[in-house]
């Protein structure tokens, strides 16, 4: 007698219609590849070459905590010469960032955009005739917002877009794309300290205006000055306390409805076009 158990066919039930199944999780290597940015380069020779030949296009260097002191000093010397920020990170973080463990303990973020220092543009401002608008972002972290700001800055005739080197979006491939290439044409200036930058530009004759969503006078109750620095805060957080206190004045955009705030790039666009209304090309 054949005792082989018969295969039982399971009939469908109403519970099957409700049951959901998890999406298969891809292998770790595939997940890392998905997360890797097109602006990330890794490997000792690659990073050293970029620091030697194109330091103005290197935004940050990520150095593994387990690399030798000799290599750390070599990277540090080149980064200091090129005024590039170096961050020490765990080897596992580098692997996640690069999508591979063959990074040799170092990676960097770079792009097609040359980042200037504030001292690079100050000589251009001395004795400059006519209206000048500069835009300063107080730790805006979304690259899409940065790209949108740069695109509007070009349209309004702003001379430069200024942003901090740390804890902020940097002008990589996403920014170039969102800005429709404007990030390759508008001077992009990276600074170390936002409040100190406000003070330096005040000393160079700029009236500094901080844009807030709650405080200050309404933006269009007075005409914006001919030589203006528009300062815009981060998404959700707005201007930091020290930066707000350093600005010459704080202005706000009035709202109806219950939204209460605008996207950082939209608010910045409103401020820039308010300046352009009086001082832009049509004037």
Describe this structure in words.
This protein has 283 residues and is of the alpha/beta class. It folds into 2 domains: 35-110, Ribosomal protein L30/S12 (60s Ribosomal Protein L30, Chain: A, 2-Layer Sandwich), CATH 3.30.1330; 115-279, Alpha/beta knot, CATH 3.40.1280.10. The chain has 11 helices and 12 strands. It has helices at 14-18, 28-35, 44-53, 69-82, 91-98, 118-125, 143-156, 173-178, 194-203, 241-246, 264-279; strands at 40-42, 58-64, 85-89, 106-110, 115-116, 132-138, 160-164, 188-191, 207-212, 217-218, 227-233, 249-252. Strands 5-8-7-6-11-9-12-10 form an 8-stranded parallel sheet, with helices on both faces. Helix 7 (143-156) runs parallel beside helix 11. The longest helix is centred in the C-terminal third of the chain and has 16 residues, at 264-279.
What is the average of the pLDDT values?
A: 83
Low-confidence stretches: 3-36
Helix coverage percent:
25-40%
CA radius of gyration is 25 Å
Broad structural category: alpha/beta
Report the sheet-strand fraction. 15-25%
Distance, first to last CA: 101 Å
Q: State the domain count.
A: 2
CATH superfamily of the largest domain: SPOUT methyltransferase, trefoil knot domain
Silhouette: elongated
Element-by-element helix/strand order:
HHEHEHEHEEHEHEHEHEEEHEH
Largest sheet report: 8 strands, parallel
Regarding CATH, which class of the largest domain? Alpha Beta
CATH architecture name of the largest domain: 3-Layer(aba) Sandwich
Order of strands side by side in the largest beta sheet?
A: 5-8-7-6-11-9-12-10
**At the third CATH level, what is the topology name of the largest domain?**
Alpha/beta knot
The number of distinct β-strands equals 12
């Amino acid at each position: 007698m054949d005792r082989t158990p018969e295969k039982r066919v399971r009939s469908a039930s109403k519970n099957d219609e409700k049951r959901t199944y998890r999406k298969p999780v891809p292998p770790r290597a595939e997940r890392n590849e998905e997360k890797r940015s097109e602006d990330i380069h890794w490997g000792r020779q690659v990073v050293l070459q970029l620091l030697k030949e194109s330091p103005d296009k290197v935004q940050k260097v990520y150095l593994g905590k387990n690399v030798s002191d000799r290599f750390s000093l070599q990277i540090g010397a080149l980064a200091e010469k090129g005024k590039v920020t170096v961050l020490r990170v765990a080897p596992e973080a580098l692997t996640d960032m690069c999508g591979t463990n063959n990074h040799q303990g170092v990676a960097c973020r770079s792009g097609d955009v040359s980042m200037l220092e504030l001292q690079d543009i100050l000589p251009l401002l001395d004795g400059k005739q006519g209206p000048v608008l500069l835009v300063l972002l107080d730790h805006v972290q979304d690259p899409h917002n940065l790209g949108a700001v740069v695109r509007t800055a070009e349209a309004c005739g702003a001379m430069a877009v200024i942003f901090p080197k740390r804890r902020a979006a940097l002008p990589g491939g996403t920014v170039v794309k969102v800005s429709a290439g404007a990030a390759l044409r508008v001077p992009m200036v990276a600074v170390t300290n936002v409040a100190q930058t406000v003070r330096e530009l005040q000393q160079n004759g700029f009236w500094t205006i901080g844009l807030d969503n709650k405080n200050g006078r309404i933006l269009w109750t007075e005409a914006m000055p001919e030589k203006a620095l528009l300062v815009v805060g981060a998404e959700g957080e707005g201007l930091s306390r020290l930066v707000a206190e350093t600005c010459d004045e704080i202005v706000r955009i009035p709202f109806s409805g219950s939204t209460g705030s605008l996207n950082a790039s939209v608010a910045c666009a409103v401020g820039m076009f308010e300046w352009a209304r009086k001082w832009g090309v049509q004037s």
